[in-house]
Amino acid sequence: MINKIKLIINSILIFFILQTNVITSEKISIIYVVENIPITNVSINNEIKFLLLINQKLSEISKKDMVQYASKSIIKEKIKEIEIKKYYKLGTTDQLINRNIDQLMKKLGISDGDEFNKLISKIGLNKEFINKKIEIEILWNQLIYQFYNDKIIIDENKLKNDLKKKISKKINSLNQYLLYEIVFSANTIKEFENKYDEIKKSINEIGFESTANILSNSKSAMYGGKIGWVNENQLSKIIIGNINKLNLGEYSDPINVPNGKMILMIKDKREIKNNLSLEEELKKLIAYETNKQFTQYSSIYFKKIELDTKVYEK
Questions:
Q1: What is the pLDDT of residues 94-124, one digit of tens each?
Q2: pLDDT digits 0-9 by tens, 51-97
């Protein structure tokens, strides 16, 4: 664990040592204004540190791209924060924040809270900064649930019948995929082409997971777009058709989902015995479909408020 922490610290510190021109200045200056909220050079530097914390591979990209990605990330967060504050008060989700902190620590290979606090202190961040970022995502997801919960449509009978057919097939094993996603939306063909080109360029330069961290609209973005292990019988024919032809590490063409596009990457693949429980698989499938629809509505709602938000570059 100590070696893991040292690796994280070193990758972040080395990035800032080598990239000497990453918006560094003793003087605090305003770079952007989102509505009436200023984003300073200090804010962008802290965002860079956070992005490097959750994905050390980002230390390999250029200073110019890192500043650009961090700027987009923090602007997106500020747009969400402005909207959230219309409905909720920050500082009321401590229990949920702690659960998410535990998940982040697990991702970083850290099991001790004190070690985590020492780590973020050494890279120039603090617990309040981390907590606020996590709380914004928690409250954003609550807001999407509040607005769209009654619009989630799950045909449980159809899912159950489809599962019965798949499970009843006389096969000894099933494929299971470790999937990662990038979700994005566009209002015009030109906007789609520009966004897809940006995503492909980013994947080529910094990899799929780092690109998901920065450019995906899904709540899985914080974890590099990770969906997790999914059984093939939980996936639609369209998705299976897109990923079956992929090798490990390759990603699909954009897949049409309601009001958006989804790109999938296969990180790993394995076979499991076909002794699945219908009830357990149905629960997983319902959860998967529900999460997918909430992700789509989240993307739609963010796009709407983004268009209504004034962002100025100083």
A1: 888 999 899 888 888 888 888 889 889 988 8
A2: 888 887 777 777 888 888 889 889 999 999 999 999 999 888 888 89
DSSP 83-136: HHTTT--SS--HHHHHHHHHHHHHHHT---HHHHHHHHHHTT--HHHHHHHHHH
Domains and CATH numbers, the chain: 2-149 (1.10.4030), 156-308 (3.10.50.40)
Size (the chain), residues? 314
Predicted TM-score (pTM) of the model is: 0.79
Structure tokens at 119: 């780590």
